[in-house]
């Protein structure tokens, strides 16, 4: 079995638990609180900007021209394309997207998640370590969206476009990310493979915490209340 296939099987219970969490269930029912959506957008706008910058940190770590071109496309996609999913959310919350992101905020959970990626980008010379910390970002969204679509009819649901976007648009990206990780894992040591696994699992848990952060309206102050 390919290394990334093994990783994906190991995190399936985490993804099922994210599906059952209140943020996603609120989307399934179409009654997620507008406050949760706004909190999510404020954090996610900043998250996407940093995600694009972390792609740029991978460029010097790669040698293949095609791979580098793909990363440049992804930077553009994160900065521009993914914003369409955010507009679906802003429309639901009946707020102007540009106004929301004007005062984006780093909350404890989103802050921790992005620093997990930066740490790996600076700590390890091989891109695979950072890619394992980044891959749950598209993978969790793809899998959660597929579960949503399989189990419910989204016709008439305000989040239909969001679900369709993540269910269909992540495939090519996952193929590239998996390819890089599998290639490295083939000749990696046991200890290196353990770090890759840990990075992937931790980011799946960060994804779960990110949705719950928005649902509970987390702030730095609320953590000590
Ligand atoms: C917390 C959080 N996690 C994942 C995504 C989805 N996402 C963000 S960047 C990207 C990959 C683009 O190359 C994907 C799928 C999100 N918006 N917010």
TrEMBL record:
<dbReference type="Pfam" id="PF03070">
    <property type="entry name" value="TENA_THI-4"/>
</dbReference>
<dbReference type="InterPro" id="IPR004305">
    <property type="entry name" value="Thiaminase-2/PQQC"/>
</dbReference>
<dbReference type="GO" id="GO:0005829">
    <property type="term" value="C:cytosol"/>
</dbReference>
<comment type="subunit">
    <text>Homotetramer.</text>
</comment>
<keyword id="KW-0784">Thiamine biosynthesis</keyword>
<comment type="function">
    <text>Catalyzes an amino-pyrimidine hydrolysis reaction at the C5' of the pyrimidine moiety of thiamine compounds, a reaction that is part of a thiamine salvage pathway. Thus, catalyzes the conversion of 4-amino-5-aminomethyl-2-methylpyrimidine to 4-amino-5-hydroxymethyl-2-methylpyrimidine (HMP). Is also able to catalyze the hydrolytic cleavage of thiamine; however, this thiaminase activity may not be physiologically relevant. Therefore, is probably involved in the regeneration of the thiamine pyrimidine from thiamine degraded products present in the environment, rather than in thiamine degradation.</text>
</comment>
<comment type="pathway">
    <text>Cofactor biosynthesis; thiamine diphosphate biosynthesis.</text>
</comment>
<feature type="domain" description="Thiaminase-2/PQQC">
    <location>
        <begin position="10"/>
        <end position="216"/>
    </location>
</feature>
<dbReference type="InterPro" id="IPR027574">
    <property type="entry name" value="Thiaminase_II"/>
</dbReference>
<comment type="similarity">
    <text>Belongs to the TenA family.</text>
</comment>
<dbReference type="InterPro" id="IPR050967">
    <property type="entry name" value="Thiamine_Salvage_TenA"/>
</dbReference>
<dbReference type="GO" id="GO:0009228">
    <property type="term" value="P:thiamine biosynthetic process"/>
</dbReference>
<dbReference type="InterPro" id="IPR016084">
    <property type="entry name" value="Haem_Oase-like_multi-hlx"/>
</dbReference>
<dbReference type="GO" id="GO:0009229">
    <property type="term" value="P:thiamine diphosphate biosynthetic process"/>
</dbReference>
<protein>
    <recommendedName>
        <fullName>Aminopyrimidine aminohydrolase</fullName>
        <ecNumber>3.5.99.2</ecNumber>
    </recommendedName>
</protein>
<keyword id="KW-0378">Hydrolase</keyword>
<dbReference type="GO" id="GO:0050334">
    <property type="term" value="F:thiaminase activity"/>
</dbReference>
